[in-house]
Specification:
This protein is of the alpha+beta class. It contains 4 helices and 5 strands. Helix 2 runs antiparallel to helix 3.
């Protein structure tokens, strides 16, 4: 009876805390062990069976869980400066609806405020940008 209760709790945890089916698979394993517990009365064997089934089901379920690509900086490359970006210093840009710290790729180039820029890479939390005027010329 305990295994059935543990299985139900683990399966319902997946509803509130999505764990990529890990808790659900552990719950299914516990329900299975609860169903065959009268045949295997030793608790340590039940626990070993539960661990083995859980691990096996988790590994098998990984094949069926879709993998979504992590959204990176390459989805949108345009941004707009909020402040002036002086040579060798950082400024602020509006990128994907958020304010980011930014630095110009050119060491001796300044970018005015409210100018369109392109994001070429990210270094930590700082975006490296170039003015749109350079790209279009």
């Amino acid at each position: 009876m305990i295994w059935l209760l543990i299985g139900a709790v683990l399966c319902s945890i997946e509803l509130f805390l999505p764990t990529a089916f890990v808790a659900f698979m552990m719950g299914v394993s516990a329900i299975f062990v609860g169903a065959i517990a009268p045949v295997i009365p030793q608790v340590y064997l039940q626990a070993i069976l539960w661990l083995g089934l859980s691990l096996g089901l988790i590994l098998v379920s990984r094949r069926f869980v879709p993998r979504y690509p992590v959204r990176g900086l390459r989805d949108t490359v345009e941004a707009r400066t909020l402040t002036e970006v002086l040579p060798g210093q950082t400024g602020r840009v509006l990128y994907e609806g958020n304010s980011w710290q930014a630095r110009c790729d050119g060491e001796h180039q300044a970018i005015a405020a409210h100018e369109k820029v392109y994001v070429i890479r990210r270094e930590g939390t700082t975006l490296i940008v170039v003015p749109a005027s350079i790209v279009h010329s």
